[in-house]
Design brief:
With 444 residues, this protein is of the alpha/beta class. It is built from 19 helices and 9 strands. Strands 3-2-1-4-5-6-9-7-8 form a 9-stranded mixed sheet, with helices on both faces. Helix 2 packs parallel to helix 16 and helix 7 packs across helix 10.
Length: 444
């Protein structure tokens, strides 16, 4: 067994040498996409399929400088898979130096009655969670192998928490957060570090539904709530209720429902040449090919190829990518203002209304002023789709690491052992250790 392990380590060292000789790097941080005037932001997501696409677009934008990523685990993705996906995505995007924090495992209401029963998270079907955890199988093929991973050695040596990563970024002057999932992690930050939380001034969220039905297809009794609002409504109510926010902008289903996937968008994606563009194309294609209403239904078409209200309701939409690009360019959507509240029962869940987002009537009190995206014109929808693909094609990542598929392809080729003499032993051993861990996992 020892001989076999040594042999395998030597093989991985040679594969690593091949990668280095071919110009491939591991552990790179060469993302040069942000301009000097870019807006510094924190992204809080649940690592679901549309989340990672939106994050890829954010890191390719010249207008955003992402300083931290929060993985919120009370939505569609389990904590371990969400962290792993995030690290591998950041590696591919040349952002291995970005802080990542892991949020609480239970929603606010459940954390008060530990261990809880995942009462809200049960709305996320197991098949949807599996697809999110694995990104339909591309998380371990078209992303990059990251030297970072989840760890919990003891009470002090463990992965950074969401609230600690939030605090570090906010205390350094970052005052804007973009949320793409439930608000559990942000609520934890508010609870643990209230003075730091009060420094945050701007929040933009893919969140809610106002003049349209909700999308809780797995909770038949609830016709009004959107998933991100429903999965931790108590957290959302308290976070949005904070007096410290100067601007609150929501991109709800009212806007995203008007931007479904289209065949022309998929055709544009198919021509992608960057690794991240190819990743988004393959991921989206797999979602289309496994969509519950078929490929036509993915585009909002019935079996005959005709757009109908029911078919459109069952389509796949640009939920989080639209919210992200609305930060970059607010003119993609039409904005309204109003005073809103999140319905959240304080002690006993009411699954039929929890997570509802309401614009208050003039005679009602409470709530807070927000801007919300009420729609998207057809022309702006087309412009958004084109700009999204263009963004992914930007050539602004230097020394980009290889995807895991590219690494495996190197293993299939004959290795020239003579090249090892030209590589520093420390480099070979360091990269070999990482490659070995991946190879052992592949063989398990």
């Amino acid at each position: 067994m020892v001989t076999m392990n040594i042999a395998l380590l030597l093989l991985t060292a040679l594969v690593a040498t091949s990668a280095l000789d071919a110009g491939l790097t591991l552990g790179a941080s060469g993302n040069k996409c942000s301009s000097d005037m870019a807006r510094k932001v924190i992204i809080d997501m649940d690592s679901n399929i549309d989340d990672v696409v939106a994050v890829a677009m954010a890191f390719k934008s010249a207008n955003l400088k992402v300083v931290a990523v929060i993985v919120t685990a009370t939505a569609f993705t389990s904590a371990g898979a969400g962290v792993s996906t995030t690290y591998k995505l950041l590696e591919l995007l040349g952002a291995n130096n970005i802080d990542v924090g892991l949020g609480p495992l239970y929603s606010v209401l459940e954390s008060k009655s530990f261990p809880g029963g995942c009462m809200y998270q049960q709305a996320a079907p197991l098949q949807s969670r599996l697809d999110a955890d694995t990104l339909n199988g591309v998380a371990d093929s078209m992303l990059a192998l990251s030297p970072r991973t989840y760890f919990h050695i003891n009470d002090t040596a463990k992965m950074p928490s969401a609230e600690d990563v939030y605090k570090k970024a906010v205390d350094a002057g970052v005052d804007t957060v973009i949320t793409l999932g439930s608000l559990t992690s942000l609520h934890k930050f508010k609870t643990e570090y209230p003075s730091s939380f009060a420094k945050m001034k701007h929040i933009i969220a893919m969140f809610g539904a106002f003049d349209v039905h909700g999308n809780l297809f797995s909770v038949p009794a609830n016709k009004v709530s959107e998933f991100n609002a429903y999965l931790d409504p108590q957290a959302a109510r308290e976070v949005f209720g904070s007096a410290s926010w100067e601007t609150v902008k929501l991109v709800p289903l009212d806007a995203t429902n008007e931007v479904p996937m289209t065949p022309s968008y998929m055709s544009m994606l198919e021509n992608s040449t960057t690794p991240e563009g190819k990743f988004v194309h393959e991921l989206t294609k797999r979602v289309r090919d496994t969509w519950h209403t078929g490929a036509n239904g993915f585009y909002g078409l019935d079996k005959t190829g005709v757009s109908t209200p029911q078919a459109l309701a069952d389509a796949y939409f640009f939920w989080d990518p639209l919210a992200m690009l609305a930060v970059i360019d607010p003119t993609y959507v039409t904005w309204k203002t109003g005073i809103f509240e999140v319905v959240a029962n304080a002690t006993t869940p009411n699954f039929s209304v929890d997570g509802q987002t309401r614009i208050l009537l003039p005679n009602e009190t409470g709530g807070r002023m927000i801007s919300w995206a009420s729609g998207v014109t057809a022309a702006n929808g087309d412009r958004f789709r084109k700009d999204a693909t263009t963004l992914l094609e930007r050539a602004c990542i230097t020394d980009q690491p290889p995807t895991m598929d590219a690494i495996l392809e190197l293993r299939r080729k004959p290795v020239d052992t003579s090249m090892a003499a030209n590589v520093q032993p420390s480099v070979v051993l360091a990269t070999a250790a990482v490659f070995a861990s991946m190879m052992y996992g592949r063989q398990a």
